[in-house]
Design goal:
This protein has 9 helices and 6 strands; from the N terminus they run βαααααβαβαβαββα. By secondary structure, it is of the alpha/beta class. It has 2 domains: about 140 residues, Rossmann fold (3-Layer(aba) Sandwich); about 70 residues, Putative phosphatase, domain 2 (DNA polymerase, domain 1), CATH 1.10.150. The chain has a 6-stranded parallel beta sheet with strand order 3-2-1-4-5-6. Helix 1 crosses helix 4 and helix 4 runs parallel beside helix 6. The chain is globular and about 50 Å long.
């Protein structure tokens, strides 16, 4: 049974600017005096992992910072901002999920984000019944760009890589899907649209269910 694998919360809703705002609130709460502007943040998105971005920035600023504590605060702010601000699904997402489920294909969300952040987005979009499987950071030891999350998803679904297609909004996610042997469609968000998605099998600005099916040999 073919499966469509959404690779991050920002493939279902463009949360990138909410994430940046949450980082800046966390920096204020910890008295760091940092502020990441959009151009700076876009450059940082070429690598995965919010906690690692904080730690790397601290090293570059020669600052002694508890990156884990700052990242926890950032995640709390992210969930608060998601609750307080309207969140809309990205173009074609709801239609794609509905069509896949009508046609007997399974749909998964395969992230290495915290379960709390994942739950906040799913609740905000009312997608509680949309996914047959949700993978989060508690289920795999290695974050993306490692392929562990996708390999875990394939095991849980009992599916082969060849029968699945992944949708990713960042370069590290594409690398993770490819490492797991899964065809990957790049669906950049507003802040990753200028990145190099040459490793993806296709790049789109809107999800179209028939186009995704073309990547599923057994569909």
């Amino acid at each position: 049974m073919p499966a469509i694998l959404f690779g991050s919360i920002s493939t279902v809703a463009d949360t990138s600017e909410i994430q940046r705002e949450a980082f800046n609130h966390a920096f204020d709460d910890h008295g760091l005096g940092w502020r990441w502007d959009r151009e700076q943040y876009v450059d940082m998105l070429s690598s995965n992992g919010g906690r690692d971005r904080i730690a790397e920035f601290a090293r570059s600023a020669s600052a002694d910072v508890d990156a884990d504590a700052v990242h926890r605060t950032k995640s709390e702010w992210f969930r608060r901002l998601v609750r307080e601000n309207p969140l809309s699904p990205r173009s074609g997402v709801v239609e794609t999920i509905s069509a896949a489920r009508r046609n007997g294909q399974r749909v998964a969300l395969v992230t290495t984000t915290s379960p709390e952040n994942v739950a906040a987005v799913i609740e905000a979009l009312a997608l509680d019944e949309g996914f047959d499987l949700v993978v989060d950071s508690t289920q795999v030891d290695k974050p993306k760009p490692d392929g562990a999350a996708y390999i875990f998803a394939l095991e849980q679904l009992g599916e082969s890589a060849e029968a699945c297609v992944a949708i990713e909004d960042n370069v590290g996610g594409v690398d993770a899907a490819r490492e797991a042997g899964i065809t990957c469609v790049a669906f950049p968000n507003a802040n990753t649209s200028g990145h190099d998605f040459g490793a993806a099998d296709e790049r789109v600005d809107r999800l179209e269910y028939p186009a995704l099916l073309a990547h599923l040999p057994h569909a």
